[in-house]
Design a protein that fits this description.
Layout lengths: L27 H12 L3 H12 L1 H26 L7 H9 L1 H31 L8 H6 L7 H17 L8 H28 L14 H17 L6 H8 L2 H30 L18 H37 L10 H21 L4 H9 L1 H28 L4 H10 L7
Helix pairs in contact: 1-8, 1-10, 1-11, 2-3, 2-9, 2-11, 3-11, 3-15, 4-5, 4-15, 5-7, 5-12, 5-13, 5-15, 7-12, 7-13, 8-11, 8-12, 9-14, 14-15
């Protein structure tokens, strides 16, 4: 059994070149910022729509339940990770289910992260360039419709001058400042929405929220099952658990960071969900940012609408490199498992970063909406990463423990004691 500090071969996440620069131990607040940024992404945009579909009370219950199950699954992942040799999600599945297990994780991470990166760029494009003649973007409202503020051109500028410098960082901890700023921008977004909703509530201009879902037709009943995957996707960050946790060091600190982040993010999700629903009622769009171009015409309203949209667009720009980090690592491990570490190969690192960025850009231009991406990922790859794979690892190790326990029951006390000491039930923190 490897000690907690051992990181081997191609399974190791991207770490700094120790010969080139001294290691700086990441802090717990930095880990909280990175975990929170990994969680709060495009999912927050569709949380108000889930309240519209599920109703306020069922949506709150689902947010709390999914948050609790996610915390348990992450704790399981860390427990079994530090009971073995590997320090990556794919390595953990390889130890449990062989090569097929690691391939399954890598494919799900690639689908989930690439889908999220595409959604981020779609939302940023919606904010800057709108979704059509009925919903203009911020740039088009300010300067009119020109070739340079069309979706393809505006996104290309963002990708080259904002995304590219951030994705070239080689350590997750290097992104702590951008993560802190992105969390602050999420609070700005939630704060402004809250003020607008409270103001509208005082004036009697809010919509009456639906406490329970309406099950008056088969379509409404089916919609309940399309809303839950959105919440699952909104809480899926398991692809970054090992990248952040290994750099942080002690598993207990990572668990604390995850718990703090989940409470913080659940509060943000429900706050923006209830206030967004109060503001727009049944007219709430799948992407609530689209609703914020429906100002009353006053200068203050237009200004707040623009601040809301731009603050969250900037938030997504800063979240982008975190998801790209784990996506790039998994693709490299999948395609180049025999090669040296990605951090030590400048040519491969830059080339893979550029290819992924270009692919996300092209697909964001080709795909017009985020809703179907949410539903697909939340019912397939995201639910596998968050719940199915961690649960399968627990069942596999539980079966091994039972089987080996039966074998050792007839052995001498020393071998039985040695087995218990090296089982996954040992105290790893």
């Amino acid at each position: 059994m490897a000690p907690a500090s051992k990181i081997t071969g191609a399974e190791a996440p991207l770490l700094p070149n120790q010969a080139a620069e001294p290691e700086k131990r990441p802090s717990l607040p930095g880990a909280v910022f990175n975990v929170s940024t990994s969680i709060i992404g495009a999912g927050i945009m569709s949380i108000p729509a889930t309240l519209k579909v599920l109703g306020v009370v069922p949506a709150l219950i689902m947010i709390v339940l999914i948050g609790i199950v996610v915390e348990i699954s992450v704790e399981f992942m860390l427990r079994f990770t530090y009971s073995g040799e590997s320090r990556t999600y794919a390595g953990l599945m390889r130890e449990s289910f062989g090569r097929l297990g690691s391939i399954a994780v890598q494919i799900c991470v690639m689908i989930t992260n690439l889908g999220c990166l595409i959604m981020y760029l779609i939302i940023i494009g919606d904010v800057l360039s709108g979704t059509g003649p009925d919903h203009l973007g911020v740039l088009q409202e300010w300067f009119g419709v020109h070739w340079w503020n069309l979706r393809a051109v505006a996104l290309l500028f963002i990708v080259v001058f904002v995304m590219l410098p951030l994705v070239l960082y080689r350590r997750v901890e290097s992104l702590w400042l951008s993560s802190a700023i992105s969390v602050f921008l999420a609070f700005v977004f939630v704060g402004i929405c809250s003020v607008m909703a409270i103001t509208a509530l005082i004036r009697g201009e809010t919509k009456t929220p639906r406490i329970l879902p309406e099950l008056d037709s088969g379509v409404s009943f089916f919609n309940l099952f399309t809303a839950i995957p959105v919440i699952v996707t909104a809480f899926t960050f398991h692809f970054n658990v090992h990248a952040i946790g290994v750099e942080l060091g002690k598993p207990a600190h990572m668990i604390s960071a995850v718990r703090i982040s989940l409470v913080l993010c659940a509060a943000i999700y429900f706050t923006i969900g209830i206030f967004g629903y109060l503001l727009f009622g049944d007219s709430t769009m799948d992407d609530i940012l689209v609703n914020f171009d429906q100002g009353s015409g006053s200068r203050i309203s237009s200004f707040l609408n623009d601040v809301v949209r731009l603050s969250y667009a900037l938030h997504l720009m800063l979240v982008f490199p975190l998801l790209n980090f784990s996506l790039r690592t998994n693709i490299d491990e999948f395609l180049f498992s025999k090669k040296p570490r990605l951090v030590d190969d400048d040519k491969r690192f830059v080339l893979l970063s550029l290819v992924l960025l270009a692919l996300a850009y092209v697909l964001a231009i080709a795909i017009p909406s985020i809703w179907y991406l949410f539903q697909f990922m939340g019912s397939t790859s995201a639910v596998c990463l968050a719940f199915i794979f961690p649960g399968a690892v627990v069942l596999r190790y539980s079966w091994d423990f039972y089987s080996k326990g039966q074998e050792h029951s007839s052995s001498d006390d020393n071998s039985c004691s040695n087995y218990k000491q090296h089982s996954y039930f040992h105290q790893y923190i």
